[in-house]
Amino acid sequence: MKYFSMLIKPASSLCNLRCRYCFYCDVAENREIPSYGVMNEETMKILIDKTLDFFREEVTITFAFQGGEPTVAGLDYFRQFIRRVNLKKKSYHYIQYALQTNATLLNDEWIRFLKQNRFLVGVSLDGYALQHDAMRPDAKGQGTFARILENIEKLRQAKIDFNILTVLTRQLAEHPKELFEFYLEHHFDYIQLIPCLPPLEELNDPYFLTPQAFFRFYDEFFQLWLEELKQNHYISITLFDNLIPLFAGVPPQQCGYLGFCSMQFVVESDGSVYPCDFYVLDEYKLGNLRDCSLADLSKSKILSSFLQGPRRSTKLCETCRYAQICHGQCKRLNVCYFDEQFCGYQAFIQKHEAILRQLAMTLRRQA
Fold this sequence. Notes:
ten-stranded mixed β-sheet, alpha/beta, TIM Barrel
């Protein structure tokens, strides 16, 4: 069966939080139009109709909503979206929904809707209160930790599948033990830990996760994770979930871990389409769903240029014995992995190679 995923920004870059490091706020500020506002009904219908019409055989389609903050678009937007999909889908269309949210707006009505439509929910939570509130205040400068934790409990009570997305800032990376214990305390077993990016074309950012901070954090965090694993408690962590299978010859789940890009079909609220969430910039616009089919967008010269673009590397890469595992990593994220003098990814693998290979062998036997 084919699989297709579309990443939709129903409220563009609009958000009710003022996170210190927001990469999408930085992206939006580098466009001629920073925000396209909330997606209108006509654009929504075009998006749904063209996606479903494109597939004439069995396919699993995931409509994933991100932002900005997607819930700012309002619950009525999502209800209309679901109704349109249900009206237009065929028997061979298997539809899945995902929502990445700061969870501050998830009232009981939202919870019922997410439950009814089987959404997978990603909740943005930067660890324990002290760290989270310092990085993710609301528009009034108030902390959001307590509200989010309360709404996570609502998700849990409703038995809605959710995971936690934590942005690993330089500040949070100094506290691997506290962060790990926080996850254990709250029984969070599915964690997306993503490195905090610097602004475009700028590395002098106080929150940016440097390669040195990357290594120090994961060196300790991995050992804490292993202790839980020895007690038959597996915690899903993005880096480990993708790196360990590579030692077993199993392709990673996440884009970028093989060093090349793949088309992500990121749709802004005006219907314009981009190849990657990190590059929703005017120069990477492939076209607009109002004017183009998915086939047209897939053949875009801008897309070809983006996918085949040059990769960043250093002299360290030329002699690295792990080059066939790393491949230079994601071209936007790799500034967090290596610089001209040091590669945190290499240092981590080198120190823990034996156990990584052992875990990979176990994975291979279980496959």
